Structure formats: C-alpha cells, structure tokens
Amino acid sequence: MINTKVVKINPKAIDQGAINEAATLLEDGGLIVFPTETVYGIAVNLLNKKAYERLKELKNRPAEKNFSIHLSDKKDVRKYAIDILPRAFKVMSRFWPGPLTIVLAAPGNKTVGLRIPKNDVALRLLSRVDFPVIAPSANLSGHPAPRDAQSALKELAGRVDMVLDGGPTELGVESTVLDARRLPFIVLREGYLKKEAVLAVAASKTILFVCTGNSCRSVMAEYLLRKKVSDLGRQNIDVISAGTFAFLGMGPTRETQKLVSEAGLDASAHRAQKVSPELVDQADLIFAMERRHKEELLKQFPTVVGRVHLLGEYIKLDTHEDEIQDPIGKSEEFYKIIFLKIRTAIDKLGDTL
After folding, report:
1. Mean pLDDT per 10-residue interval, the chain, length 353 residues
2. Both 75 and 60 in a single domain?
3. Per-residue CA distances from 347 to 38, 127, 167 (Å)
4. What is the largest CA-CA distance in the chain?
5. Rounded to an integer, what distance in angstroms lies between the CA atom of residue 318 and that of residue 341?
C-alpha cells in the first residue's frame, strides 16, 4: 500500500510549491489525482512505462482502449495528432478549454484523444511538465466518476501517490467525446456538452479572406459575403478576414466604409487583425487577393495547401487578371473599380458554397 499524500490547494491562490511537487512525482512515475472542471482525474506521465502499467491495472482498462492526453495549450495539438481538419480546429476554438475530448488521427495509423480542461489547478500542473499527461477519471471501473477529492480517496487511497484537493468540481459530469477524424464528425459519448451543440459547430464552414492590411479588400469581401450567405439562408457559414501585414485594431479606410455603407452594410465596427495559426487552422477555404498573399500564407502556414486560393482565380473572374489590386492610397474611382470587382466575385462565390 502507498502512503497517499493529500494536499489541499486553493484554486484562487494556487500554491506553486504543491504544483512543483506534483509535477516531480509525475515525472518520476507517480499517479496524481487532480481536479478538472468536469470530474477528478488521475494524471500519469505517458512516457513512464511503469506508471502507465500501474494506471492500466488500476482502471482495469482493455489494452486496445487508449487514455486521453490532457493539454494546457492548443499549440501542442500537432505534437500528437496528424491530418487535422479545419473544422476540428474550429471545434477546439469554440469549446477549449472545456469539457470536450476530441479524437484525432495519430501517427502509425493510430488515434489519440485530446482535451484542455477548464480548471486553473489542472492547467497549472499541465503547463509545468514537458511530457504528455494522460488523465482518466479518478474512479475504479464501473463506479461513478468523483466530483470531489474525498470521493476519489474512498476508492484510491493507498493506490495513488498524491491527491490535489481543489474542492468540488464545477460541472460534475464527464466530458463529451467527439470523433473528429473525418467528416461528418461523430459524438462517441455525450457528456456535459450536448451532442447537438457540438455538431452544430462542427457542421459550420469558415471562409477567410486575406489581403495586406485588412482595412480594404478583405473587409469588402467579408461584409459582402456575410450579406450574401444571409440572403441565401446559409446560417452554417462563418466569414472572417485578416491581413498579412495588418496593424492590430485599425478600422477600415474611409473609402471602404463608404462603399460598404452604400451597399447597405455597416463595417464601422471592423478592426484589423493579422493572419494567425488559429485563424488559418479553422478556415475551410482561404481566399487571397494577390499571389504574394497566397505565397506568404503557404510560406508561414504550410498546412493551408489545398485550402488557399486566389479569389479571382477560384471563381474565374472575366477580367484580364485574377489578382485584385490594392486600392490603398488610390483615388475613390479606383476604390469603386476594386469594390465592384470584389462584389462580382462574391456573387459568384456565394452560389458555390
């Protein structure tokens, strides 16, 4: 029998010393019970074979059934998963941190379940280590998952090395599990998040427009396509825009606001943003205004290959060139020419989505 150490920890004033002690135990092969927002879990260093075997024996888990990996940051997803679909990233963006485990493809024709818990104690512990942490619920097979440390101790005292007692969990229901390896996504287990809510997000498509400063062309395209899909009753299409060299928080140019307003739309609330991994990861289609934008996206984010297109080329504009030139610093008449070109493109694009 192990002498299980119980450490009370205040989620609002987390003792880093306790976190460090738990992290060291994890690295050395210990089993640590810790709180998440759903239920208490048993944290184990996946790279420690002895600890992994202890956990399998404790949970009486069949060899073919894997444990999910708990992360502290979305940027770590690609350490463990491959061939990730844009809509999987969209689901992550919507529900993480939170009670959703996402099953993805992993190297070696395997699968992996990933989750980011919404609990400060859990996140502090996970961010403290540099190895993968698996964390099934802190109960014996067939028994209810515990909402508090005392319930976990009734079954696991003497079987785990430490219990971080962070008080009752917020939700008390296990995470929903989503198979996001291929479309359509499938809910394997309905937990706290309802099946319909998760699948509604998974079914939506995201379109990203990219120009240079995110103050002219991409703004025009974004607002025009928003109106187009609204007119078509396509509630499952989200439209966003960004720039390769945008100044964060800048509004649209005066000329852009005027032209968009004349089309019956209001872009005054728009604020420029720069293209980022999170934006491109969740985009089903990315439309660049010029080749240099497309090339920059492919250079910065190689995974967008096959999803990034020149807008003019994609919808086959009947003009001498498929690039849409930058009107910044040009005359109002040139702005109108560019706006009409983009509106023609959006009218065609909306009918293809």
Report:
1. 94 97 98 98 97 94 85 96 96 97 96 98 98 96 94 96 98 97 97 97 96 98 96 92 96 97 96 97 97 97 94 75 91 96 93 82
2. yes
3. 46, 47, 55
4. 82
5. 10
Residue in the structure block whose two tokens are 């984010």: 301
* Partners of 208 in the β-ladder: 240, 286
The dihedral through the CA atoms of 280, 282, 284, 287 has a sign that is: negative
Output the pLDDT for position 62: 76
| Measured distance CA(270)–CA(238) in Å, rounded | 15
Last residue of a domain, one of 139, 174, 201: 201
Do 11 and 142 lie in one domain? The reply is: yes
Q: What is the pLDDT of residue 141?
A: 87
For the chain, what is the domain count? 2
Same domain, 74 and 161: yes
Q: Do 70 and 127 sit in the same domain of this protein?
A: yes
Containing domain of residue 129, as a range? 5-201
Residues 196 and 290 in one domain: no
